[in-house]
Amino acid sequence: MTQIPKVPIHEPHTVYIKPSKGLAALNLRDLWVYRELIFFMVWRDIKVKYKQTLLGMAWAVIQPVMTMLVFTFLFDRVAKLPTEGIPYPVFAFTALLPWGLFVTALNQGSRSLVAHNNMVTKIYFPRLILPMSSVFAGMVDFAIAFVILVGLMFYYQVTPAWNLVWTLPLFLLLAIVTALGVALWLSAVNVQYRDVNQALPFLTQFWLFATPVAYSASVISEEWQILYSLNPMAGVVNGFRWALLGTGNGPDITLWVSVGISVLIFISGLFYFRSMEKTFADTI
Amino acid sequence: MTTAISVKNIGKQYKIGAAETKFRYNMLRDVIVDTVSAPIRLAKAMIGKSDRRLNQNYVWALKDVSFDLEEGKVLGIVGRNGAGKSTLLKILSRVTEPTTGTVSVRGRVGSLLEVGTGFHPELTGRENIYMNGAILGMRRSEIDSKFDEIVDFSEVTQYIDTPVKRYSSGMYLRLAFAVAAHLEPEILVVDEVLAVGDAEFQKKCIGKMGDVAQQGRTVLFVSHNMSAILRLTQEAIVLNKGQLIMRGNTQEAVDYYLSFGQSQAGERTWAAEDIPATSVPFTPISLKVKERGGKVVDTVRSTEPVTLEFEYKLDAPITGLRVGLYVSTMRGEYVFASFDTDDPALYDKFDSRTAGHYISRAEIPADIFNDSRYTVGVNASSFGVRRYFMDENALAFNVDISGAPGTQWAEPRVGPVRPRLNWKIEKIGE
C-alpha cells in the first residue's frame, strides 16, 4: 500500500449538547461547515433522477412542452384567452418555466425529510440541508427548459425585452425562496403527520389555478389585484413575463406584496423547522 | 489528560402510544366530527397545542446519567435490551436531543451505527464513497486523500465503477464499513456492528477498532457479546432501565451485569414492565433452575441432571412457535442452544400452539457443565416469521463439580463443558 500523505485534520472543537429551548438559534455555522454536503446531495439527486429511464434528460423537455401543448389547445384554441399580443405557446411556456421549478421544489422539498429518514435517524447533520438541496436540484431542469424557451421565442420571432432580462434572476430567487419557505413548513409537518403527502397533489393543482400560468393576470379585475398578489407565485410569473416578453406593468405594489408574503413564509418556515428539528429523529 | 466526553445528568423522554387514539372511531358521527375538525386539529398540532397530548404516555429512556471519559480511553457499555444504550449513543452523536442535562464532546463523533447511510443503489462505488463521506462530515479533500485506502480496505477495487445495486450484500457492507472506518473521528461509537459480515471481515473490523484505540482516540463500544467487550475494553458502564447503575473495570462490570436482577437464586420472574409491547401475545412468566428433587437451586451439581423450566402464557394461538434456551459462559461464549420443538414428534404435535398457560421443561443430562458460572437466555420465536420475546441474560447458575471427571487433580479444566467420556485403555504391545 502506498503511503498517503496525511492531510491536516481539523482542530477538535468542543460541541455542547443540551436541550434547546423555544425557538432555537438558526445555527448557520453548522450549515456552513456542512456546505459540501448540500453540493453532494444536489449532485446525487441530479445524477439519479433519470437513471434507468429510456428517454433520460429528454424528460426535462417533454414535461413542460406537453403541458404547453395541452394549454395551447385548451386555452388558446378553445377558450381563446387574451395574451397581450404574444403567441400563446411562448406566453404559456414563459410561465411554465418558474412554475415547473416551483412545483418540483415544493414536492421534493416537502417529502425530503421523510424520504431520507434513514439519514435523519442515524446521523447528525443540519436537517435544513435536505429541503434545501431538493429545491436546488430542480434548477437543472429549469436550465434545460430555458433553452427550449429561447428556441420557441426564436421560432415565433418574439423579441425579448432586453432591457428587462437582467431582472430574471431576481424573480427566480423569489420563486426559490417561496418554494423553500413552503417546503420548510410542509417537510417539518410531514415528519409527524403524513397528511402532507396526501395534500400535496391537491395543493399544487389548486395553486396552479391561482397563478396566472395558463392565463394572463390582466383578466383579474383591478380591485382583486392586491388580494391576488397574496400568492407570491403570481408575482413571480408576472415578473417573468414582464422581464422576457415586456407584458404587464412591471413591478408595482402587487409585486411588493408578493415579495413580502414570500419572505414571511420563508422566515416563519425557517423558525418552525428549527423548532421542530430536535424531534425529527424521534417522531419520523 | 483531557476529557473527551462529559455527560451530566442526561435524560431522554419519549412519547409512547400517541398513534393509538387516532383510529378509535365508534360511530359514523365520530368519523364525521373527526373529519370536519381535522384541519383545526392539524393547525393545533402544528403550533404544539395538541389536544391529543393528554392521551400520551411518557417514558424515560434515559434518566440522570452522568459520566466523564478521558481522551484515548475505550469504554464498554452493557445493558439489556431497552436499557438506554442506543439512546445514549444517539444523544452523543447528536442524532437526537436530550430532554434534560448537558453533554460536552471534544472532537468529531463518528459512529458505526451509520454504516451505509446515504448510499444510493444507482450510484457507483466511487460516487457513493464521496457521497457517504460527505454525509459523515468529511471534506472533499479528506476523501480524495483517503480514497485509495478506502478502496483497498473494502476489497471491491474491480467494481468501484459499478452501481452498488449490482454488489453482493457482502461487498456493499465492506464498502460502507470502509468509508465509516476511515472517517478518523476523535471519538468512535460502535454499536453491535461486529455481528455483520463474514468472519474474516469481522476480524478486520475489530483490528480497525484496535488501531483507532491505539492512535489515542476515544472509543465507546456497545455490544451484547460479553467476550468482545472483555477483549476490547478495560472499563465499562452498566445501564439498566435508563440509569447508570455501575462503572468499573470491565470484568467487574460484566459480572455485575450478568448477575444483576437475579436476586432470587435460581429463579427469574418477569414483571409487566420488563416485557416489551412487541412480545404480544407471548407473556413470559418465570424461568427456574431445578435439581433432581424439584427444588429451585442456584448451584447445581455437575454429576446430576438439571431441569430448566420456562413458564409462559399465550393470549392468542401462535403457529410454529418454538421456545428456546441459550446457555453461555460468563464470557459470552455460547455453550449450546436448544428448542422445545427440536424433536420432530413435538414439532408436529405443536405445529400451532393454542392460547393458554404453558411450561416448557428441558432436562439437561449430567456431566455437561464445568466448574464455572453459566447464564441462560430465553427466546420465543416462529422461525423466519417473528421473534416474540428474547432475554439473553435471564438468569445465571453456578456449578459444583465435586465428583466430576478428573477432579482427582486439583487443577482447572479448560473449556466450557466437562463431559464424562467413555475412555478405554488398551495395551497393544509389550
Describe it for me?
The complex is a heterodimer of chains A (284) and B (430). Chain A has one domain. Chain A is 65% helix and 1% strand. In chain A, helix 4 crosses helix 11 and helix 8 runs antiparallel to helix 11. The longest helix of chain A is centred in the middle third of the chain and has 28 residues. Chain A starts with 13 loop residues before the first strand and ends with a helix. The N terminus of chain A is likely disordered. In chain B, helix 5 packs across helix 6. Helix content of chain B is 24%, strand content 33%. Chain B starts with a strand and ends in a 30-residue tail after the last strand. In chain B, strand 8 and strand 9 form a beta hairpin. Chain B contains 10 helices and 20 strands. About 3% of the residues of chain B have low confidence. The interface between A and B is large, with 46 and 51 residues. Strand 1 of chain A pairs antiparallel with strand 4 of chain B.
